[in-house]
């Protein structure tokens, strides 16, 4: 496998952002031919577009783009720059290089599903076709299908609370394990974190009432408890079959994600346009 391809594959598997720099066009003398590629992360480089000031400038630009995308995912579009190697960069080649910068970012929507039972299987099947990255957690390895979609990562562990602790801020969490005790442990840990998105628990209103009462007795605040969604799923959608419950839950997750994205876009629009002026 080509070096830059392998590097991008490894970074994608580790969910680390990267920039792919391609030498798009050249005129005159340049250190590399068109098609040369360089993968840039915040800490490392993979491949080369010829070294020297050209590559140094490319790395600086790529890292500026990565930093901008971290602040505003809407700023992740491709960029083309034309660089004069002689007058601008002081390289003896003296040619002109046109560079294409493309960001390769982890999906901003991360969902963790705890439990590989019937509803968990149905939910993950639906989420696999949505623009999200799914972490599917269960201690029972035999409950997972032999093959999983590329967007789904299987986590087999006897310590699911560690998997929850490792989730990025803003991740959505759906708890539907085979054990009420484990459900409680995971819900309590999710609410205690305070930086997750959706925290959903499969079950009835009676189950919610029991959990809320016990959580409150263990120090969880009203604000934290209000973040717990139980029962899960859009009201009026679905039924009692696993696929129906999963469909309602996926619809609720997508609805919340869409609303959050619209809110973020609304907040960031003035900043992109230079802000507003009040007199």
CATH homologous superfamily caption of the largest domain: NAD(P)-binding Rossmann-like Domain
- Count the domains: 2
CATH topology descriptor of the largest domain: Rossmann fold
Strand percentage lies at: 15-25%
**Quick check: average pLDDT?**
88
The assigned CATH architecture of the largest domain is 3-Layer(aba) Sandwich
Number of strands: 11
- Segments where pLDDT lies below 50 for 5+ residues? 275-279
CATH top level class name of the largest domain: Alpha Beta
Listing every helix as H and every strand as E from the N terminus to the C terminus, the arrangement reads HEEEHEEEHEEHEHEHHEH
Helix content: 25-40%
- Our measurement of the CA-to-CA distance between the termini, rounded to an integer number of angstroms, reads 60 Å
Radius of gyration: 24 Å
- The number of helical elements comes to 8
Derived from helix and strand composition plus strand pairing, the structural class reads: alpha/beta
Strand order of the largest sheet: 8-7-6-9-10-11
Q: Name the overall outline.
A: elongated
Q: Largest sheet, if any?
A: 6 strands, parallel
